[in-house]
Every structure is written in structure tokens, then in C-alpha cells.
Q: What sequence folds into this?
């Protein structure tokens, strides 16, 4: 947000009010406790449109009434909001709005929380002179599988259309027809599918757009609101759960301009049904003769302690996803303390060493999420925000559209940002593709081009745009660090930051998109094989890959999996199955018993983010509180208590009586969290980099640490430096370089929430059309993808903007996990017959929805409602 | 071209824009040049500074001929100076019912417009110009395209016009048939490829218009006056008309008159001279009952106002407006309630739907007027109709809502007794006359 204007005074209804110059009158009036009613005004949607005419007020010196939503205040402005003229106009506008509104409040889902109701009562006459018949539409009909639209109730405020066109920029919603026949719809009645479309439900000021998952589930007087933080991805959006009868029935945004700008993605919005999923284990389970059976906590914890006690020095832990800081800290303490092991991993591949991590965490390089708004340029490097951290995508689009930020994209795989923004904004200046695993080379070349002043380089345009841009934010993905050259890649990234002078740059810096929702927090509390809490020195432990190998080889005996499902998500699923089978004891902790949990000896049920009490750390360093909004279902216990008890049984009682005390222990162990309390975190969080009097984080976590080679030499020495993998050998002999990507919907959330099931991802092989033609496969075809004796089945999807010679598979699918082939080159792609009952319903829709990108397949006529997902049309 | 107006019809007609309008072949560049065409363009581009031209236009008192009547020179002077991309848009979306002057001007004299646009663009510092023409004028647009091509070939348009360093590109863009796209900001949205909806003002197009660049938007007739001003000077222009309404005006007259059509008059002559003197008045044996003085959005006047001078100021003072200069005459065979309904239906159909009072008000008004002519209303409904018009006026995003509310409101006020009689008669006869078009259409001639 731009800086507030200079302080001025205005007079509203005879009362002097302090305001800041340039603020819209409707906002300035609020500071004087004057409410001017609005429908269409919503600053989050961009410039005011002045369409509803509800906010007309009288301003001295201007003959016509003015819309307060679009009138910036000036010093000495004299405004009247209570004159007869204004009141008559307000009455008139309310009367007009109700000419065609059905007034079916008693059966409307919005009743009781409806701005139209409130404003009609507050600013209308309470009586209508309309006796004419109202307009009719078929209603309610699905606008998407998640939203129903009632066009009769719509008052044409334009909010949903503006969201689609100016915030999500998917351009799917349009106002069709004109005049009093106008209605909101999509081109050819296609369903509105986009990862952010649920926001329009919340934007709608009437009952025209209702949530399929919430319709008729509650009345406003039945419900309570409870604030928490969504931990389904690193965006960590602030949410407000609607609770009825101790169950979450809806998720709304809890507007935090520093985190989410008041938006939610559909995963966060509709991913609440899983809290009451029948599949969810609500008691501990123990393995009885090969299958998991419910057990009491006493029994389960005793078995866990008994299983781990003999494995001192021979236990490993993998901590993932939405695990809180406290839970993560307890697990690493248990491992490093009572179990005397250093094998604590929180990433699927070896994590970055201590030195590089410390440097990347230096506050001088850090940038707050809100700073993206004012960036002069944004470089999206090695990540796809829409899939990995969706809300950041909206932030980037906003910066480009509203502030003219330059956008540059450099990724392995096409992203939705490539096409940039719509007409009227600068859009994406340039989108670059590099081959899977070649991030480091790209960064090095870019740095070279910047240092040499561009010149002859092929990246000169890129370099120029970055060099001369104002504050620059580099949004980079942790997934770039998956390869063996991670240290070199990190060093290249730091060199790039140096070349761009990002350290200490006002409003600029590095912004990481971590792999896991609480990736940063887990790392900072010591869930890493190369360092302890606060990036402290620690003896080097095994990485996830090494843990798998060590289990298989019998070098270690026991494994703790916390919110991690390596069989599904990590490389080499068969290897993991063997490793789990070889392990003498496996303790798994998760909300749902996934593929890996099924092989465990003891399973402890975990809380969801509506039930948990604890903290998480946003990728920009903001600590946030996850707070219990509903009682824990079934026999669930707070996981931190269970972990504390387990630890105590193994001889080390952490000694925290409450979650708050536990956080104090964590804060005492992480130097740069020192002084932070749960109260200080409060409802909107606090960035540790911005704490007054914080210890210089670079001292605890950075510059004076030993250089990288000391840290991470051992074991897997051969860095990619020795194996040139430039474009020269790429695509040779018909082989395809395989990359994987995290798909937003490829995880248990899409499966455990009935509303989202239609989005669940089946394995897809993405190919450049030229490669597909060469291989002889077509869009939508089922193929067997093989490499070195391993193979999986996938459906072909063609993407024009992919680099030739590359192929992509989605990570995290329930079937045919990409990890089976990860790191390999694809040697063969062979068509396979369709499965027996020829009913791959997704196929036609997928082709149809993706049309326009040059796909080979002619899409069949679109069904009335395509129940499948799609990438943005701009792909 | 002409150095003075040509008097016709006993001095009632003053032909300046129409001087050679019926000259065969005027639409070709050869004939146009032969008659003195493009001399103003040569003078403007070779000998004038943009600022000088804008001052001349301002000094001439030329007011916009599209409806609002704002000083053309003043509007041009609002454009910021500087290097940014600036645009000129000629509004040729002539959609106001009763208005068909631009059609004749453009069809018969396309080069007159091309020359006017080029001069206007040069004065405004715009290097790109557009003529946004309503899609229904397909033949006219073809002629304009041909004229633009000829002008490019002759060096009057394009890069370095006439060897100067000034570029002017001109493109003819065809609209898709929405009245609202004649509203200047909706025109810009439509030209940008968006749904044609009016924009919130401010910012005004002079500051932030087409593609967010400063944009001058003028009507066809306004721009076609520019070559004459350049040739003859502002004082010559001011020698026509009244002090506040300088120059001549092409008036489209239609409805119940014997000789409907376009007449060019000196502003300020009595309206009676136009309606009776030029157009011949109502057919034999009929009396004038009502007239729209400036297109269907102007409040309707009666016989009492026939001797008003036909000028911007006199009509405004009488509570109406000169608008686009289209006079629609209704005689005593015309039912005023039906005329009101016909007018309201047009605006309901053309309302874009963006703002509440226009979208709902036009539709509600139509429904109430339908009840009036069907005899299903009461006199109280007339109060509601009048009050709804009051609630629309001045409260909308653009003037389309007002464009219905002003004439309909004026009719309900002035001919209230006829509305009451209509209700009573329709109720007695029991026959709903809902879809009977008024006699308005009978004498024909009113194109557009």
C-alpha cells in the first residue's frame, strides 16, 4: 500500500475529522464514525467503479452529489451525509436495488449476514413502491462445482467480475447482456474453475453466490467465528473458521494485509471438511498382526516408548508439512537428546548446509510479504507460486497490475505468470525456461550478465530489467535445491543477490517459497540434518534419502514420521516401502493414515489447523499462532502433549505445562526468537526480523559461520559441477529430461474434502507438442513412461511453452507417484490401452478446458458442467 | 473550403458544411481538393503551432456538436503537454434517436472529416486518431476507409504528414451497435476491446483516456468545422450564430413534418423557422403538439416554445437542450404516453446496466408506462413515474439515465392530463394498446 498522504482536516456533517490527503471519502468518514453505505466499493479489487451509487453524498461547492467511494478527500472539504437530499437519494438507490431483488430473505443463505439487508434497513425507507413483476432466471445453478449462483438476487455490484478480471486475472467471469437483463456468467456457461474463485462468495454482498459446501448448513445466529492460520501451504493465510455445534462448517479470510491481503485459495477455503472426515483416525492405533487397530493413548505411548528405547542412536525422524514449531522442536529435541541421534530431516532431499542457510536467512536479505506490493521488479525464480504458495501469486499480479512492477519469470516448467497480466498493465516482461535441474546454471549466467552489464549475453534484457528497477524482490523456490548441486545453487543465488545489491536494499530482497507449509519454522527450530535450533551448529545427521538407505541397510532401526508420507511424496517409493518394512519400529503421526502410516507400528492421530495450538513461521519470518477453533474430535490429544509425554517416558521431560510455556522454551532455544511471546505474536503475527532489539541474526545465523564446504562435504561429494549438464547433452537420442513439480491439488487435502475431490490429480506426463509428435503420442493418451527398468502410467498433456526435450510429472499424486522416476531421464513413452471400463471422465474436460494452447486433441463438445480441473488458459 | 456561408431557402439555410454537399464525386479526393479541400490541413501542418490552433478553436467559440455542447478548444487545451502517447477519437457513433446529420456529412464528404480529424490530432498533439463509427453505418464506413486510404496515399496522413515531422495515423473502427458506446468513456472501453461501459469520471479522457493516454474526443460535425476555422479564422466563424452559440449547425428534423431531413442553419434562428420554414411543419390539417429540440434525450417542448432561438443557451434556459441538434416533431395525432413509453423502451434497451439508477430505473419506468397505456395504472402511478425520474436524474454514472428521465419526466409533468385520460380510456375500452406503436413513425424519413 502506498504511504498515507499528509494529514488534513475535513468536515463531515459539521464535525471536524482528521484524515490523510488522498484517502477516499468513504474511508476517511469511518475515522469520524460516519458510515457511508457501499456495495461495489472494495479497495482490494482495485480502483473504485462507482457503479452502485449507494455512497452519494453532498460536497460543498459541487452541485451534483458525488460518490464517496471515488472522491479523494482534500483539506477543508465540507461534506454532508445526513441532509434530506442525501437521504432521499439513498432511499432511492435502495428502492432501485430492490426493484428486481426477490426479497426472499427468509430462505436465503445470506440472511442475517447480508449487507443488502443491513443497508436496506439502515438507509432505505423500509417500504417499496414497486408492484411490477421481477425478472427471473433459472436458479440456483452451479457456477462451478463449488459455487451456486442465484442471478435473481444479484445486484450487479461487479465485485465478483472485478475479482476474476483484476485480481485472479483469470477473466472467466463476465457481465453478460446489458441493462436490466445483465447477469454474471462465464463464456458459453463453462464452469468457473480457478484456484482462487472461492473468494467471490465472500465478496458477494447479497446471497447471489453461495458456497456449495456451506449452503443451508447454518444461520448466522447458530455460528461462532474462530481465528487461526491455515497450514496447508507456505502462504499461511489468516483464516476465520465458522463453527457450528463444535464443527467447522466454513472458512473465511481473516484479512491480514501483511500475509494474505484478505484472499484465500480454494484449498484453504474448502479444505475444512477433512476435519470431520470419516476416514480420519480419532484414536491412536497400534499394529496388530499387520493391521492398525485403535488403541488407548497409554497403550500407544507405551508401545512407542518401548519401540524407540532400544534404538538409541539408531532412530531417525522426518518432520513435514504442517507440523508446528513446537511439535518440530520437541521431535528434534527427542532425537538429539534422549535418542542421541542427529538424523532429523524436514525436506525430501538433503537440506542446505548451515552456512548457506544462515546466509539466506540473514535479515538484510529478507523481505516482508507486503513489500511485494511496492516492488519495482519481481523475479520469479525456480518456483510456481500458483501451485506452491498460491496467495503470493495474487500479490505478484497485484504489484504488476496496480503498481507497474516489472515481472520476470525463470523456471523449469511453464507457470501461470508467464503470460503476465491482462490489458492495461505491463504484464510479464519475459519468461525463461531452463532444463530441469539447471537452475544453478541459469542463475550463474544471469549473474554474469548483470555483472558484465548485459552486453552480448542472451540474458541482457533480463539483466537490464533487473538492474534498473527500483526495489527488486526475488521470489525463489526451495525446490531449486533438490539436486546434488544444492550448495552451489545456493551460492549462485547469494551471488545473484550480491550482484543485485539486495542486502539491506530498501523494499527488496530474497523471498523464499519453501517446500513445506511450515518449512521455515521447522528449519529454524532445528528440524534439519545439518544444524540445530536457530541454525546452531550440530553434528551432521542423515538426510531423508540417507535415512531410507540406512533403514534398508539395517544401519538404523527406528523411524518417526510426523506429517510425512515418503511413500507418496518422496523419491523412490519402492525403496521407501522396503525401508519401512526393514525398520524395526515406525512411529507415524498424521491427520490421516497415508501410505507410509499404514506400515507403522504405532500411529498417533494429529490435530488439524482448526484444532491445534501452536506457532508456525511464515516464509518471510512472521511467527503466527495456530489456535484451537473447535474442540479436538474423538480421543485426540494435543500432539505437543503426547510428544512431551513420549519424551518423558524416554527420560527427558521438556517440562512445559501449557502450549504457551512450550513456545517460551522454543523461543529460548532459537536466539532470534528471543523475547517473542505468544502475546506478542497476537492475532496478526510478528516478523522476527522486525523485532526491536533482536540479536543480530547474522551473528546467530550467518556471516561468521564457516564456509559451505566444511559443512556439507561428506557422503555425496560429487557435485554437479563435475557433470556439465548444459543444453549440449539435453534431449539426446530421444531421451527426455524429467522434472517434477508440486501440484496444488496433489495431496490428501483434495481427497479428504468431498467438495474438492473433483480436483484430485491423476498422474500426467507433460510434453512439448514437438516432442509428443516425435514420440508419436497425443493429448489425453494413456502412456507408460519408462526409464532404466522403472515405469509408471500417466496421461499425456501437451504444453506449448515447455522446453523441448523435457517432460514433467506431478509430485504427490495418490497413484503412480512421480518419485518412482525422479532424477531419471525418460527413455520410453509407450501408449497403453485404456483401462477396461472406458470411463476416464476427466479426459474430455481436460482437453476442452485447456484448449487454446495448441493442443492436438480436438475437444469434444463441453459438457454442461465439466467436473475436472484445469490450468489457467494462459498456459 | 467555403469562405462564406451560402444562403438558401430564403435565408433560412446557411450552408457552410453543406456548401458542396451534393457535388457529385465529393467523396473522392480529386473532387474534394478541386473544391479547396485539404488547404486547411496544409496550412495547419506547415504554418501553425499546435497551441496556436487550439487558441483559434477556443476563440471561435465552437461548441461540441455531439450533445454536451462543451467548448471544443477548451477541451483540447486540457490535454497535458509532453511526450506521452496521446489520442484523438472522433465519435461517429451517431445513435441518438432522430439524429442523422453525421451520416450525411460523412457519407457525402468523408474527406472533410479526415481533414478535420488530422487537424484536430495535430492541434492536440495526438499521433494516433480513430474514427469510432456505429456498425450500422457500414456503407459510410466503407467510404471513410476509402477516403483514409486516399489521404494516406496523398501524404495527408501517416508518418511525417506532408513532409513535416508530425505523424498522424487514422483508423476507422466499426462499433457493434450499442447506443452507450456513443458515451465518450464507453467508446474508449469499446475501442480498447472491452465491454462498452462508461468509466467513472474523473479522470476525464483529456487526462487519462484511451489506453490511459490523454485523449481528445469530438463529434464528427465538430471536427468538420475545424478546416473552415483554420481557413477563415475564428472571427469569421463567430460571425455566424449567437454570442454563446457560434457557427452553423446541421439539424436533423424528423417526425410529423412534411420535409424531414438535414438542414444547416445559423445557430440562433427561431425554431419555428426550422420546423415550419424548412421542414414544412406538420401535414395538412394537423397541429404541432410537442417537439424534442435536441434528440430523444432532450426534455420535450410544446408549441409555446416554437419562437425560441435555436441556440444552446436559449434551449437550456427553457429547461431543455440543443443536444445533437435533432428535432423530432409530434403532431396532434401522437399520443404522448405512447411517445414516453417508446422513449423509455429505447433507453431501457440501451442501458449498459453498470449503475443502479439507470439499470433499474429505466426498466421500472417502462413497466409503469406499459401499465399506463394498458389502463392498469392509477393517477398515483403517475406521481411515482415522475418521482422515479427525479431519482434518476443526476444520480447515474453517465448521462444515459438522465437521457430517459428528462424527456419522460417532462412529458409526465406537462401532459399529465393526457396520461390520466389515456389510463381512463384504456381501462374503459378494456383493450390493451400496449404494443401499438404511436403515429410517430408514420411520416417516415427519420433514419437512424
A:
Amino acid at each position: 500500500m502506498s504511504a498515507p498522504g499528509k494529514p488534513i482536516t475535513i468536515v463531515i456533517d459539521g464535525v471536524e475529522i482528521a484524515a490523510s490527503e488522498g484517502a477516499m471519502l468513504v474511508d476517511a468518514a469511518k475515522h469520524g464514525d460516519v458510515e457511508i453505505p457501499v456495495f461495489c466499493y472494495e479497495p482490494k479489487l482495485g480502483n473504485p467503479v462507482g457503479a452502485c451509487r449507494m455512497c452519494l453524498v453532498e460536497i460543498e461547492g459541487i452541485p451534483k452529489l458525488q460518490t464517496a467511494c471515488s472522491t479523494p478527500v482534500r483539506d477543508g472539504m465540507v461534506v454532508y451525509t445526513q441532509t434530506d437530499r442525501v437521504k432521499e437519494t439513498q432511499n432511492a438507490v435502495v428502492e432501485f436495488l430492490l426493484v428486481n431483488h426477490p426479497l426472499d430473505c427468509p430462505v436465503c443463505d445470506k440472511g442475517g449476514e447480508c449487507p443488502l439487508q443491513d443497508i436496506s434497513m439502515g438507509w432505505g425507507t423500509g417500504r417499496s413502491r414497486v408492484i411490477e413483476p421481477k425478472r427471473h432466471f433459472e436458479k440456483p445453478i452451479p457456477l462451478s462445482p463449488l459455487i451456486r449462483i442465484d442471478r435473481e438476487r444479484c445486484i450487479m455490484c461487479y465485485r465478483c467480475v472485478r475479482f476474476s478480471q483484476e485480481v485472479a486475472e483469470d477473466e472467466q467471469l463476465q457481465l453478460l447482456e446489458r441493462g436490466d437483463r445483465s447477469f454474471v456468467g462465464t463464456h458459453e456457461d463453462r464452469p468457473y474453475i480457478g484456484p482462487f474463485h472461492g473468494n467471490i462468495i465472500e465478496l458477494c454482498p447479497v446471497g447471489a453466490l453461495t458456497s456449495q459446501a456451506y449452503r443451508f448448513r447454518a444461520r448466522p445466529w447458530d455460528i461462532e467465528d474462530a481465528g487461526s492460520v491455515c497450514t496447508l501451504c507456505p502462504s499461511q493465510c489468516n483464516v476465520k473458521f465458522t463453527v457450528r455445534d463444535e464443527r467447522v462448517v466454513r472458512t473465511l479470510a481473516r484479512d491480514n494485509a501483511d500475509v494474505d491481503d484478505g484472499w484465500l485459495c480454494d484449498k484453504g477455503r474448502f479444505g475444512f471438511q477433512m476435519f470431520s472426515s470419516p476416514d480420519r483416525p480419532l484414536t491412536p492405533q497400534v499394529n496388530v498382526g499387520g493391521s492398525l487397530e485403535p488403541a488407548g493413548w497409554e497403550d500407544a505411548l507405551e508401545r512407542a516408548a518401548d519401540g524407540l528405547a532400544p534404538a538409541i542412536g539408531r532412530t531417525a525422524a522426518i518432520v513435514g508439512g504442517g507440523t508446528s514449531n513446537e511439535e518440530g522442536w520437541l521431535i528434534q529435541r527427542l532425537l538429539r537428546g534422549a535418542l542421541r541421534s542427529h538424523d532429523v530431516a524436514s525436506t525430501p532431499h538433503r537440506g542446505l548446509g548451515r552456512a548457506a542457510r544462515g546466509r539466506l536467512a540473514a535479515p538484510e536479505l529478507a523481505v516482508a510479504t507486503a513489500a511485494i506490493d511496492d516492488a519495482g521488479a519481481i523475479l520469479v525464480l525456480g518456483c510456481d507460486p500458483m501451485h506452491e504458495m498460491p496467495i503470493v501469486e495474487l500479490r505478484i499480479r497485484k504489484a504488476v497490475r496496480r503498481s507497474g512492477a516489472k515481472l520476470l519469470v525463470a523456471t523449469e516448467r511453464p507457470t501461470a505468470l508467464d503470460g503476465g497480466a491482462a490489458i492495461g498493465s505491463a504484464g510479464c516482461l519475459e519468461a525463461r525456461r531452463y532444463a530441469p535441474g539447471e537452475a544453478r546454471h541459469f542463475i550463474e549466467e544471469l549473474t554474469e550478465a548483470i555483472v558484465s552489464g548485459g552486453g552480448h549475453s542472451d540474458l541482457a534484457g533480463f539483466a537490464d530489467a533487473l538492474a534498473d528497477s527500483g526495489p527488486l524482490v526475488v521470489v525463489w523456490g526451495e525446490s531449486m535445491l533438490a539436486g546434488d548441486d544444492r550448495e552451489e545453487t545456493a551460492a549462485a543465488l547469494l551471488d545473484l543477490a550480491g550482484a543485485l545489491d539486495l542486502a539491506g536494499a530498501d523494499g527488496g530482497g530474497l523471498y523464499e517459497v519453501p517446500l513445506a507449509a511450515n518449512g521455515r519454522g521447522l528449519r529454524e527450530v532445528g528440524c534439519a540434518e545439518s544444524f540445530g535450533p536457530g541454525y546452531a551448529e550440530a553434528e551432521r545427521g542423515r538426510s531423508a534419502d540417507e535415512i531410507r538407505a540406512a533403514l534398508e541397510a539395517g544401519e538404523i532401526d527406528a523411524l518417526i514420521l510426523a506429517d510425512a508420507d515418503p511413500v507418496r511424496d518422496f523419491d523412490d517409493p519402492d525403496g521407501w516401502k522396503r525401508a519401512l518394512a526393514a525398520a524395526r519400529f515406525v512411529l507415524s503421526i498424521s491427520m490421516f493414515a497415508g501410505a507410509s502410516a499404514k506400515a507403522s507400528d504405532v500411529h498417533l492421530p494429529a490435530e488439524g489447523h482448526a484444532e491445534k495450538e501452536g506457532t508456525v513461521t511464515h516464509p518471510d519470518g512472521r511467527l503466527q499462532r495456530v489456535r484451537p477453533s473447535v474442540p479436538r474430535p474423538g480421543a485426540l490429544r494435543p500432539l505437543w502433549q503426547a510428544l512431551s509425554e513420549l519424551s518423558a517416558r524416554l527420560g527427558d521431560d521438556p517440562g512445559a505445562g501449557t502450549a504457551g510455556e512450550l513456545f517460551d522454551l522454543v523461543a529460548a532455544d532459537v536466539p532470534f526468537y528471543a523475547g517473542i511471546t505468544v502475546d506478542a505474536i497476537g492475532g496478526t503475527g510478528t516478523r522476527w526480523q522486525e523485532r526491536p532489539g533482536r540479536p543480530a541474526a547474522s551473528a546467530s545465523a550467518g556471516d561468521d559461520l564457516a564456509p559451505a564446504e566444511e559443512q556439507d562435504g561428506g557422503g555425496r561429494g560429487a557435485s554437479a559441477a563435475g557433470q556439465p549438464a548444459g543444453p549440449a547433452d539435453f534431449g539426446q537420442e530421444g531421451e527426455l529430461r524429467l522434472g517434477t513439480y508440486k501440484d496444488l491439488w496433489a495431496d490428501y487435502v483434495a481427497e479428504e474434502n468431498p467438495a474438492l475431490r473433483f480436483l484430485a490429480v491423476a498422474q500426467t506426463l507433460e510434453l512439448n507438442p514437438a516432442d509428443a509428435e516425435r514420440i508419436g503420442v497425443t493429448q489425453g493418451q494413456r502412456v507408460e513412461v519408462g526409464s532404466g527398468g522403472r515405469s509408471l502410467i500417466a496421461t499425456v498433456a501437451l504444453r506449448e511453452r515447455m522446453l523441448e526435450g523435457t517432460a514433467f510429472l506431478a509430485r504427490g499424486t495418490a497413484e503412480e507417484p512421480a518419485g518412482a522416476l525422479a532424477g531419471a531421464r525418460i527413455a520410453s513413452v509407450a501408449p497403453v490401452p485404456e483401462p477396461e471400463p472406458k470411463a476416464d471422465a476427466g479426459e474430455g474436460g481436460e482437453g476442452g478446458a485447456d484448449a487454446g494452447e495448441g493442443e492436438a486433441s480436438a475437444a469434444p463438445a463441453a459438457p454442461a458442467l465439466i467436473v475436472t480441473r484445469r490450468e489457467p488458459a494462459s498456459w | 473550403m467555403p469562405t462564406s456561408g451560402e444562403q438558401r431557402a430564403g435565408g433560412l439555410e446557411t450552408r457552410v458544411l453543406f456548401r458542396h454537399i451534393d457535388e457529385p464525386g465529393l467523396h473522392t479526393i480529386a473532387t474534394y481538393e478541386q473544391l479547396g479541400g485539404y488547404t486547411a490541413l496544409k496550412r495547419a501542418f506547415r504554418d501553425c503551432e499546435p497551441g496556436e490552433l487550439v487558441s483559434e478553436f477556443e476563440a471561435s467559440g465552437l461548441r461540441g456538436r455531439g450533445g454536451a455542447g462543451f467548448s471544443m478548444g477548451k477541451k483540447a487545451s486540457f490535454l497535458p503537454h509532453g511526450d506521452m502517447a496521446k489520442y484523438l477519437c472522433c465519435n461517429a457513433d451517431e445513435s441518438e434517436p432522430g439524429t442523422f446529420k453525421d451520416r450525411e456529412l460523412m457519407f457525402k464528404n468523408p474527406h472533410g472529416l479526415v481533414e478535420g480529424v488530422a487537424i484536430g490530432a495535430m492541434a492536440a498533439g495526438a499521433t494516433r486518431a480513430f474514427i469510432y463509427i456505429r456498425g450500422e453505418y457500414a456503407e459510410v464506413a466503407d467510404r471513410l476507409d476509402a477516403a483514409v486510404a486516399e489521404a494516406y496515399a496523398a501524404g495527408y496522413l501517416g508518418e511525417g504528414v506532408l513532409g513535416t515531422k508530425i505523424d498522424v495515423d487514422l483508423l476507422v473502427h466499426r462499433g457493434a451497435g450499442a447506443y452507450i458506446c456513443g458515451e465518450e468513456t464507453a467508446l474508449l472501453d469499446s475501442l480498447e476491446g472491452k465491454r462498452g461501459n462508461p468509466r467513472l469520471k474523473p479522470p476525464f479522457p483529456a487526462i487519462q483516456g484511451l489506453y490511459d493516454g490523454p485523449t481528445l474526443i469530438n463529434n464528427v460535425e465538430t471536427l468538420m468545422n475545424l478546416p473552415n476555422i483554420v481557413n477563415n479564422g475564428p472571427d469569421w466563424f463567430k460571425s455566424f450564430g449567437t454570442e454563446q452559440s457560434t457557427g452553423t449547425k446541421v439539424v436533423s428534423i424528423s417526425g410529423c413534418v412534411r420535409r424531414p431531413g438535414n438542414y444547416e442553419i445559423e445557430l440562433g434562428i427561431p425554431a419555428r423557422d426550422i420546423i415550419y420554414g424548412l421542414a414544412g411543419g406538420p401535414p395538412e390539417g394537423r397541429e404541432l403538439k410537442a417537439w424534442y429540440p435536441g434528440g430523444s434525450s432532450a426534455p420535450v417542448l410544446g408549441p409555446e416554445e416554437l419562437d425560441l432561438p435555436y441556440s444552446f443557451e436559449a434551449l437550456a434556459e427553457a429547461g431543455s437542450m440543443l443536444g445533437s441538434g435533432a428535432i423530432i416533431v409530434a403532431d396532434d395525432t401522437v399520443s404522448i404516453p405512447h411517445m414516453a413509453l417508446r422513449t423509455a423502451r429505447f433507453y431501457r434497451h440501451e442501458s449498459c446496466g453498470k449503475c443502479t439508477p439507470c439499470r433499474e430505473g429505466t426498466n421500472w419506468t417502462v413497466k409503469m408506462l406499459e401499465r399506463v397505456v394498458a389502463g392498469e395504472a392509477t393517477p398515483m402511478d403517475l406521481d411515482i413515474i415522475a418521482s422515479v425520474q427525479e431519482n434518476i436524474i443526476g444520480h447515474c454514472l453517465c448521462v444515459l439515465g438522465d437521457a430517459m428521465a428528462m424527456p419522460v419526466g417532462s412529458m409526465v409533468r406537462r401532459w399529465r392530463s393526457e396520461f390520466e385520460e389515456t389510463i381512463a380510456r384504456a381501462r374503459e375500452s378494456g383493450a390493451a394498446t400496449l404494443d401499438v406503436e404511436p403515429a410517430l413513425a408514420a411520416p417516415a424519413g427519420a433514419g437512424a
Remarks:
- The CA atoms of residues 91 and 219 of chain B lie 5 Å apart.
- The first strand of chain B starts at residue 6 and ends at 8.
- Residues 438-448 of chain B have pLDDT under 50 and may be disordered.
- The longest helix of chain B spans residues 356-373.
